Amino acid sequence: MDLRLIQNATPSAEERDAVDSLLGAPQTDWRGTPHEAPADAYFGAAGHESRGHRHLLLPALHAVRDATGFISPGGLNYICQSLDVPPADAYGVATFYALFQMAPVPPMIAHVCDDIACRMSGAREVFAELESRIGPAGKATPDGRATWHRSPCLGLCECAPAVLLQRAGTNQTDEVIAPADASAVLTRLTGDARKVEPNPQELNGSLHAPQTLDPECAKGLRLLKRAGRVDPESIDAYRASGGYEALRRAFDLGPDGVIREVLDSRLQGRGGAAFPTGRKLQDVARAPARPHYLICNADESEPGTFKDRILMENDPFALVEAMTIAGYAAGCEQGYIYLRGEYPLALARVRHAIDAARRRNFLGADIMGEGYHFDIDVRRGAGAYICGEETALFNSIEGFRGEPRNKPPFPTMVGLFGKPTMVNNVETLMNLPEILIQGGPAFASVGTEQSTGTKLFCVSGCVERPGVYELPFGVTLREVLDLAGGVRDGRPLQALLLGGAAGSFVTTEDLDVELTFEGTRAIGAALGSAVIMPFDDTIDMADIVLRIAAFFRDESCGQCVPCRVGTVRQEEALRRLSAGVPLGSVDQELALISELELVMRDASICGLGHTASIAVQSAISKLHLFDSKRAQ
Amino acid sequence: MTVAATTHRLHLKTNRTVDLTVDGQHVRVPEGSTIMKACQEVGIGTPTLCYEQTLTPVNACRVCVVEMEGSRALVPACARKVEPDMVIWTDSERVRHSRKLVLELLASSVDLSYAPDEVQGYLDHYDARPERFGPPDTSDGAVHRDHTQAGHHIPTTNGYAATVAQPPKIDNELYIRDYSRCILCYKCVEACGVDAQNTFAIAVAGRGFDAHISTEFAAPLPDSACVYCGNCIAVCPTGALIFKSEYDMRQAETWDEERQTETDTICPYCGVGCTLRLHVQDNRIVKVTSPMDHDVTNGNLCIKGRFGWQFVQNRARDTGVEESVGTS
Amino acid sequence: MLKAIHNGARLYVVDPRRTSSAQWADGWLGLDVGSDIALANAIGREIIEAGLCNHAFIEHSTLNFQEYKAGVESYTLEYAERETGVPAQAIRELAHAYARADRAQLCWTLGITEHHNAVDNVLALINLSLLTGHVGRYGSGLCPLRGQNNVQGGGDMGAIPNRLPGGNDVEIAEQREPFERAYGVSIQAKPGMHLTEMFDAMEHGAMTVVYIVGENPAQSEAEMDRAIRLLSGLECLVVQDMFLTKTAELADVVFPAAASWCESEGTVTNSERRVQRVRKALDPPPGAKDDIEILCEMAFRLGHDWGHPSAEEIWDELRSLSSWHQGMSYQRLEAEGGLHWPCPSEVEPDSKFLHGWLWQHPVGGPLAPFHAVEHDPPIDKLTDDFPVRLTTGRRLESFNTGVQTSGYTSPLRRGESLDIHPDDGRSWGISDGERVRVVSRRGEVEVVVRYDPILRPGLTFMTLHFQDDVATNLLTIDATDPKSGTAEFKAAAIRVEKLNVEAAKTVEVAAVAGGES
User: Fold this and answer.
1) What tens digit of pLDDT does each residue of C116-154 get?
2) Which candidate among B291, C157, C177, C477 keeps its CA 20 to 30 Å from the CA of B61?
3) How far is CA A253 from CA A247, A266, A444, in A?
4) Which A residues 64-103 touch B at CB under 8 Å?
């Protein structure tokens, strides 16, 4: 298209190389060769084909950021010229993501988690130390080499407090430090880079599924059966432990047979909406438009949630196999894994697994000699909770701002690139091999009548043994809590957050609730992403609720008014209440918050707005937070 | 010479119709109509801010929401297509609540004083009281708003309501961008993009409450891709984008729509034949628009049609007609 | 056009410069200036060779196909590549894309018509539409994009040497007679002169009195020195205009006119033959009169009392004489937002496209003839003395000689410049922004250079917008198409000279002084 690039902004050699290594060197000066080829003087093509690569915008932004730490005007220019995208548009996309900075920053950034689990487990001490040694968030170290920022939940709640360390440049790495103490962070930010000891956490992988340590307990595991036992970087180890038996079975059954087994299993989506997976497969398989796409939603960003990370880190081949099965059933030839940007180890393991599978002909053309063609691209998120919303995820992959679309039309008919699309989260997909091996009815025999199979629970906060737990649906909250060793240090339980930041607070009265989709619904809560986060009596619940409100304000995409302004007004009202200076009376403020909850739930475009007030409301109604009649 | 080979199919209108119920009244509309169209059929008005007949609906403002039986959330009337046997309520308790709150949220954060009278009408009709959220925080946030980092925010001063207040951007002689009046309806971005001009000079940047309309790196318009067609101004519902001629007169308090006439004529420049609607006050053109429902260009113009009329006035000045309006 | 592209249409752009449209094109064919016929004939030959022509249409609706086929026989892809510079493969691709499309349009502007062989250029394109049947059907056709708001309407009203209103031919008695009856005068049965012939007539002393309405030939004509000399030498020059233009300054009598588009009533006709109403929104400044009033006053003083007809009354008289416009009452024009001619009846719809009759069985009018035409490169040859091609055109924010557009402040306007490719700048030792002398065989101007990568080495560009500052038309050539009277504005041969260092300094100092005042 007719691009007007930013004047006097030329890309540096690093930026040019970064983009070229992703897209290939440009072939004509139309796309940015420094000197024109003679053929360019009389012929050029800048039409549909040239504009057809916009979906590489997010990877290109990552490439430039990885190389230099930020997106400069010259870097943005080069991306725009390479992909035929207008600079204002690309700027709008880049500024949508928290991990992209548009002004020069130090090459090393420590993102220190400030979210609910971490602030109960030592994050405050880390902040205090960083503030006193370096300065407030965003201030560079004296050598200009590093800085630190507060971050929303990094998905490492079981080993809080957590830090994600990003290094840009020739030796670009992302490193996780968890549990982090201030000195470990400071050594990296201010110390001599060559002397830094490797982070033991990183080498071990984040195996934080306590059940796997107990052989008795481990026997009953389905989704976690390889965690800690099978080398996640060896396809042979994977196959030796039953890997690819399910795909073989899928080919024997044929696509319709696979769908029948999944229907029989009564598997429901684990992303929160609990939609029957078999029906979704069927809808996509039957959709007349072609091609069909498969997306694995691995943008796990709900505060308190880390189960998908642990699956990807510990059993990445199973995810690849599960996606191949889903793709086969739904008639897809191309799959995408949209993986949140803060999961470096999961990213590395999944990429490795895809490459290994491709080498062994488990991906690509004619998989296992069965004539089925399927491949997977990994797309890395860049710090946006909203991209876990499926239609926002489509926009993000397509190279647009991660803003949700209106539904209908639904993704099974009009999804990625406007085509029928199967979207499932990691945990849901990982059930597919199990279903094929055991058969749908056998799978359905575990759990309850309405909620079949096992479920992964993310237990963190004030708990003795945090981690991910796999248990059949129907287990009670109390049982999970007991399995995790109860409240930390034996302190009294004040409250629990169930389901994540978009879930609800419950109290000790609710401990016997059956953890199923229907059981949680019955007490006015939701299973959500199966977060179970206990708070002991020392925790300031107002602070936790304020943090949740701030999270939604930060993560609202800004598209629709109820959510864009409603999340701001909600935070303001809570802040006034928390400071004890309500506008009018406390009751007036609480009524105002209720009104905000209603408009966000009724009139927002997507689930983020619909759920942005649930936790706040439950804190007010169940925990009687800010209750004017509550004894101070 | 240009060759365009059209490969798309003609859009043939179907003769099929859909029956539904709106506020208890039976309505039959052509398949593919929106709920808003069905409401019109039975004389029910729908408040809208981000809707424009010539643009793809983004349904971001949510002031048009209606209640649809069987749907958990309300649905946007401007975009949602009718389906057989839909039952729609446009004035239920929930609808009134959401419309009122949406208007309050906007009016508490955005300066709506240049919005057309109908917007004030909506506020009155739904008894919107934006002051419920506290006094507006109008501290100068301009620099902050152009360069925010997604995922981070500075909490609002306690006791105040955050706003988008900022000084207007005056960086050219043709029009002003006063984003303290911007409700982020996306219409200007659509008009600058694929829906009309295909210039892509502006986009939505940033995220959440800090989302804003911006050029790349917030560059001034003359450094951007802008071609000054003014098609963004034509669709702006709140006066955030405004002709400099109008802005100057408003500042001088000489702008008086009561004294203005509107006359449709044809642009004096190229052979496309765009209709110009001349807004004339005291025998002077004060701004130019174009009717949205005219099929030559559907309300869109280029810089010459939109701004190239001043020669008529310069000539009037030459012949000694008294300067009666304007400050420029 | 972009709407169609977003719907999946493919776009090919043929233009020496990489224009904004070229940046959207699936194929840009950057031919050398003035090689359009070589390209079009090669496309035609390739379509025939590849067996892609529409034989049913050719047989049913056209004439002279065999002559055409023979005429393009020598226009091989290789020949076309040599003449145009465009790779043969690209020409072949365009030929196939055009011939195989379900529907295709050819649109053009002055790049086709501002040549010494303008009509041949157009015929070469018409041949392609006849070859493929891309004419007279929805979504197909030939579309000259008019550069002025009423250039179509002017011709339709008879302001063209060989036509009366409604396309009636002055040379055909039965078409002429109704006008003679209505006007009560006899009309000469031979065409009048077109603009270039008029200047020739002035040169030869055959034309001594000229009445100019709303044109600025002292600045808009190619070889403007000659135009000014001839206009100055007239016995009597009358100019009727909104402004005291450079032409008006030469006049013996000036009639100040109202702005027709906003200070008077009437109609204009756009590129798609759509007649639309213009309306009075403003009172004209004191002394300025409506064109109709001025003409009626003139007539009265010449002994004809035409009274004081309204625009609508004049229009109704036109409708009584032009079958194209018969059905277009003011009332209908208002109600339907304009009507396309032919519109012979008030009760029938107007005609959205013109040549539908070619598809009727039997054909509803004369058959459409092919015209074999030959490539003939620009008159102003490139030589060692004048090695660089200068082409001219418009910029978005300005219009023609700037009489109207100079009235508003545009952030896009940057004044006149000689746009050159950066490689030329480097090899000539001329930097971006440097002031140079541009010399053609007819004259010279000084102008600032601007680097612009949409050009290529050897190709330069200027506009006609700022004639007061830089008289580009001192450089252009008035080699004229004998059929249309259009000069070859698109192709001049120039050389670019560095100003001597002293002169350059003076300019700089003057600029600084100007900046401070």
Assistant:
1) 999 999 999 999 999 999 999 988 999 988 888 898 999
2) B291
3) 10, 18, 19
4) 73, 76, 86-93, 95-98, 100-103
